[in-house]
Amino acid sequence: MDFDDTPEEAEYRAGVRRALEQHAAELLHVSAGEEAVDAATAEAELRRTQRVLYETGLVGVTWPREHGGQGGTLVQQAIVQQELARARVPTLINHIGLGMCGPTVIAHGSDDQRQRYLTRLLRADDVWCQLFSEPASGSDLAALRTTAVRDGDDWVVNGQKVWTTLAHVADRGILLTRTDPGKPKHAGLTMFVVDMHAPGVTVRPLRQMIGSAGFNEVFFDDVRIPDGERLGEPGEGWRVALTTLMNERVAIGGAGSDLGIPVEALVAHARQRLPQLDHDRQVLARQALGRAVVASLATRYTGYRRFSELGRGGVPGAEASAGKLAGTAAAKLVADAGVRLLGDDAVYAATAEGDETWQRSQGFLPGLAIAGGTDQVLRNILGERVLGLPPEPRADKTAPFSGGAR
Amino acid sequence: MNFDLGPDQRDAAAGARDFYRGSASPSAARAALEGGDVAPGRKALADIGFLGITVPESAGGAGGSLLDLAVVAEQGGAVLAGPSLATAARAAVLLAEAPDLAARLADGSAAFAVLDGPVTGSSPSMDAAGATLFLGLDDGALVLGEGGATPGRPLDATRGLASVRLTSRRVLADDAAQLWARAQQVATVVLAAEDLGAADAAVRMAVGYAQQREAFGRRIGSYQAVKHMLVDAWVGVDQLRSLVWWAAWAADAAPDELPLAASAAKALAAEVLERAAETCIQVHGGIGFTWEHDAHLYWRRAKVDRLLLGDAAEHLDAVARLAVAGALG
Q1: Quick one: fold of A128-238?
Q2: What would be the CATH architecture of the domain defined by A254-386?
Q3: Beta pairing class for B133-138 and B112-114
Q4: Which residue is closest to A275 within chain B, CA to CA?
Q5: Would you list the domain boundaries of chain A?
Q6: Pairwise CA distance, residues B24 & B222, whole Å
Q7: Of A148, A174, B81, B161, which is least packed with CB atoms within 10 Å of its CB?
Q8: pLDDT band at A309 (very low <50, low <70, confident <90, very high)
Q9: What is the mean pLDDT of residues A104-109?
Q10: Exposure pattern of A52-82 as b/e (b: 16+ CB <10 Å)?
Q11: Among B4, B67, B243, beta carbon nearest to A298
C-alpha cells in the first residue's frame, strides 16, 4: 500500500508537467479560488487552450489512436486532469464532447461521421453538447417527448430540451428523440447528431437559483436533420444513450477529487475565523469543522481506492455512484461549516468585504444533488447493482408510450 | 498509487475470517451476556498468533504492521469476537521497551489490559475483566501492576469492561505521555477496524433479509424506503474502510498523519456502526428486536464501542484542532 506514483506514472506525470510549463504562455489560467470560467465570455481563449493541449497530446488521452486519441489509460487521464488542475488550467471547453459525445460517436457513428467530427471535437474546432433532459423527463430520461419524424432523406425535429450545458456556445450536439410513440418508451427512441447552428434551433440561457446561468434551454422548431446524421439504427436510441451515460459516470465518478470547495480551503478559513468566536461558539464550530473534514477525507480516500482499482485495469462500476453521493454530502458539510464561520455575514449573499465564496458554494450544492443523477437515483443504482436488491415493479416498460404509460 | 491491500494481507484476512468464523459468533456474544465465556478468548487468540501480530519478532511476535493487524481485527469484528485486538495492539506499543513482557503478551502467558483514567480507580476499561496485569498512566509515568477489577452489568459482554484499582504497581517508563498517546491512537484504529467488520456484517445481514422477506406482495428490498436506508448504511461502511486503511497505514508509514487519521476513523466508525446496527434491526422488523435474533448483538457492540477510547464528539474536535494546526498540510 502506498500513495505514490509507480515509476511509469511518475514519468508520465513529469512529462505532462513539462508540457504544461513549456506551453504556459499559450494556455488560459484561472486564479486561485476561481471555480469556473464562463464559456461565453472566454470562448476564444478556451478553444485555443484545448487546441494547444490537443497538439501537445493531452486531449483524448483514453481515446483510441485511430480516432485521434492517445490510446492511453484511465490512470493517465486522471494524471492529466490532476496536472491541469495543479497548473490552474480551467476545465476544457469541450469536456462534454470529450467525455460523452465523442465516445458515443466512436461507438455508434458511421465511418463518415467519425471522420468528419472526431478530430474537430478534439481540437475544439467544434464544441459539443448533450441534448437529453427535457422539462418532463429528468431522471426518467426515456419519457422524453421531443419528436423526430421522417420526411424524405431528412428527419424533422420538434420539442424542447433543458439543462443543456454549453448549448450557448456549442456547434454540435447529440440529440435523443422519440421516433415511434407507438412503441414502449425505451424502444421508440433514436439518436442524432444535430447542427446547433441549423435553422429552427433556439438556445436560451437558464438562470439558476444562485443567479447565474450555466445551463440552457434549447428549442427545436421544424429542425431538419439529414438521415446520415443518425447515430445507430432507428429505435436503438436508448442503447446509444446508455453508452453516453456510462461514459458520464466515468467522467463524474472522479478519483479522489473534491466536489465543491476543497476541505483545505475550509481549514484555512477556519484558522482565520475561529479565534474571532467566543469560547462556546468555537466548540460548536469545531464540531462542524471536524464533521466536514472527516466526510471529505472519507470520500477522498475512497476515491483513491477506486483510482487504485483503475490502475490495476479495473473498469469503473456502479460503485462510482457512491463517490458522487457521498461527495455531495461532504461538500454540503464543507459549505455549511464555511458559511457558519462567517458569523453575522452568514445571513447575507456575500461578506461585508464582498466575498461570496461560501455563500455561492452553499447555493450551488442543491443543484449538485440533482444534476448528473439525483441522490435518489444514485441510491437506486447502488441498491440494485451493488447490493443486489430487487428493482421496483414498473408499469411503464412494456406499454406503448402513446398509450399514456409514461 | 496503490491504495489497496497486498496479496499477503488478503491471505491473512481470509485466514482470519476462517479462524474467527470457527471460534466466535453472535451466538457466543449472546451466551456471554448470559454468563458464558467471551469467544474465542485470550488463549485461542494467543495460540493463533493474533495477540502478537505487532510485537517484534525478537520478542516472539510476528513483527507485522498495524495494517496487518487491522485486516485481522476487521474479521474479528464481523463475528463480535473478544478480547479486542485493540487491547493487544495498545499493549504492544506500551511494551516496546520491555521485550520480556511483550513476549508474555504475544504468547498469552499474561493477560494484559490497559486502563483508561486513574490507576487508583479506572474508568471502565476494555478486556479488564479476566486480565491479570494492567498497564496504566500514573502521573505521566507508565506503570504495570496487579489489581482488582469490578465489572458492571454488561451491555456488550464481549468487551470485558471493568473498573480497576491497582493493588501493586511498578514504573516501566517515566515521561511516557507521548508513548501513551501513540498507544491510544493505535488502539483507536484497531477498534475502528473491528467496528468496520461489525458494520459490514450487520449491513450484509440486513441486505440478505431484504432480498427475501416479502410484504405487500413483493420483496421489501424493492421499496425505495428500505433500499435507500440500506444503501446509506453500505456507503458508510465503504467510506469507513478507506479511513481505517489509511489510518492503519499511517501508523507505520506516515506517523505524522496518524493522530488525525485515527480520530477521523474512530469518529466515522462510531456513526457508521450505529447506523448499520440500527438499520439492521429496522429492516428486520419484529424479529429484529427479539433476544434470539443476532441484530441486537451488533447494536450492543455499536452502543458500547461508540463511547470507548473517545466518543465521536471528542474525535471530531481532535480532527478540527489538528487540521487547524496544520495536520492536513
Answers
A1: Butyryl-CoA Dehydrogenase, subunit A; domain 2 (2.40.110)
A2: Up-down Bundle (1.20)
A3: parallel
A4: B324
A5: 7-93, 128-238, 254-386
A6: 33
A7: B161
A8: confident
A9: 96
A10: bbbebebbbbbbeeebbbbebbbbbbbbbbe
A11: B243
Q: Are B320 and A270 a contacting pair at CB < 8 A?
A: yes
- Cell 462500476 belongs to A317
> Which residues make beta-bridge pairs with B315?
none
CA distance A395 to chain B (A): 15
DSSP code of A65? G
Query: Strand, coil or helix: what is A167?
Result: coil
Among A305, A382, A390, the residue with its CB nearest the CB of B3 is: A305
The size of chain A, in residues, is 406
pLDDT in tens, A339-365: 999 999 999 999 999 999 999 999 999
Instruction: Determine the distance in angstroms separating the CA of B314 from the nearest CA of chain A, rounded to an integer.
Output: 9
CA–CA separation, B282 and B298 (whole Å): 13
- CATH class label, A7-93: mainly alpha
- Quick one: DSSP state of residue B104? H
What angle in degrees, to the nearest 10, is found between the helix axes of B224-253 and A320-340?
A: 80
Res A398: pLDDT: 87
Of A1, A287, A392, which is closest to B6 when you measure between CB atoms? A1
- Residue count of chain B: 329
Question: CB contact, 8 Å: B50 with chain A?
Answer: no
Tell me, what's the ipTM?
0.97
Q: Round to whole Å and give the CA distance between A160 and B225.
A: 33
Q: Which residues contact A84 (CB under 8 A, 6 or more apart)?
A: A20, A53, A58, A92
Residues of A marked active site are found at 248
Interface of B with A in 61-100 (CB under 8 A): 67
Spatial CB neighbours of B159, under 8 Å, sequence gap ≥ 6: B82, B84, B126, B127, B301, B304, B305, B308
Q: Given the DSSP bridges, would you call strands B141-145 and B133-138 parallel, antiparallel or unpaired?
A: antiparallel
| In chain A, % of residues over pLDDT 90 | 80
B31, B92 contact by CB (below 8 A): no
Domain containing residue B275: 185-324
| Residues B246, A296: Cα–Cα separation, whole Å | 14
Question: What distance in Å separates the CA atoms of residue A166 and residue A205, rounded to the nearest whole number?
Answer: 10
